[in-house]
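Honest question from a wet-lab person: if I give you the sequences of every part of a complex, can you actually get the arrangement of the whole thing, not just the pieces? Trying it with mine:
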Amino acid sequence: MRRSYLLILILVLVSPIFGVIGAEIVGYHEPLDVAAELIGLGESEPIWTGVFPDYTVPGIPDVIGYVISGLVGVGVLLLPALLRGRRD
Amino acid sequence: MHIPDGFLSPLVALSLYIISLIVVAYSGRRYFREGGDIYYLSVMAAGIFAAQMLNWPIPGGTSAHLVGGALAGVILGPFGGCLAMFMNLLVQCVLMGDGGITALGANAFNMAVVDVFIGYLIYKLVMRMSGGKKFVAGFLAGWLAIAAAAVVCGVEIGLSPQFGYPLSVTVPVMGTWHLILGLVEGVATGFIVSRVEVIGK
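Yes, you can. This is the full assembly:
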């Protein structure tokens, strides 16, 4: 079962290859954000940008920020599992 | 599939907040009353969060990432799947600004309710009809449930004058696009459900 923790960790560590590097190569945005731009809604006015806006850490290179924000997100979601363990 | 702020009319956004909260609360009651363990919700939510960070870039300026609602619904059962997806969406919205805070109800409805429950039902149905072919059932569940969620998403933004395109545009565009992208979701769902232990009933 610790295999699931390991798998999640690996996913986060390799994620910038897709989510940042690959995305820059093809000029990627969320499909709905692209749609917003096309019709002039702009992504300019989010009401809440988050603690790590779009998986970035302000002032830190995108690749590293992506991993850091990913680790924080995963860490928060895993808290109940880590604190309580499996009940059986 | 994550709807940002500004796409939805206040009426659509608010209605879906209410509906989603009711379904999530009911799912919580059912999941824990039936002896569900928060451990599995936690690991599933974290796994889906991590998997969704793998955007597969597609030339032309867009990308596809797994959504995972059908997968969560099959593995944890619909109530557990709904809760795990909601936990994921909440963290994405609050911490990463992924999905607008005003659209959280709509995003939860699409990905934690429609994708999960439709996916679960398709999986059960195909399992019964095919005599237990897990890959096929998982494939169809992952594929068709994501298309269903996309159609519902198209309805939501089409009903909102803020978006500026009518239902006759938003629904076919979202639906057909995700019928294509959803093939990847289907293969991944089929692959995973045929290899892991299914906890939900």
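Two things worth pointing out. The mean pLDDT of chain A is 85. Helices of chain A lie at 2-26, 31-38, 62-84.
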